[in-house]
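Example 3.2
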Amino acid sequence: MCGMNGDYRAPGRDDYGRRDDYGRPSSAYTPVAPVQTEVNVGRLWAGGVAAAVVAGLVALVGLLVARAAFQLAVLSPAKAGAFGDSSTTALVAAAVCAALLATGLAHVLLISTPSPLSYFSWIVGLLTTAAVVLPFLGSGSVPVRLAQAVIHLVIGMAIGGLVSNAAYSASRLTLSGSR
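Structure, written as tokens:
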């Protein structure tokens, strides 16, 4: 067989001069080091704490709007006033804890799974959906249950968005062995 122009079998065409130990053209493939996620833990948890503050404030403001603007007795009787009773504190504390737990979940996913933010979004989305449906399983008027559901939805959206952004900004992909 002669080495005509365009003959893909002709030696030396695409091997760029590389030869293996037996003189055969070597493969152009060079293995790439595995990719891993490097997490700036301080930045992640600072964002998580900030998200927890926002989530607590979203819960408080949501209850204030429902009670003061719409005159709904959400989570406490109307005689308890705009700030309500201990159930207000419980919802605010639950929102803060949920944001901190979401930060912990994001941290674990960042160091252990491929596409961690995809899994995080699914988990937070499903938990938010469960929190939105929860008020409709109890008793009470429909407007009050709807107000609770909207408050839970906004809390979940705030936590999901803020913690996801904190996780994104606190992580970067690096090649194994390089710093």
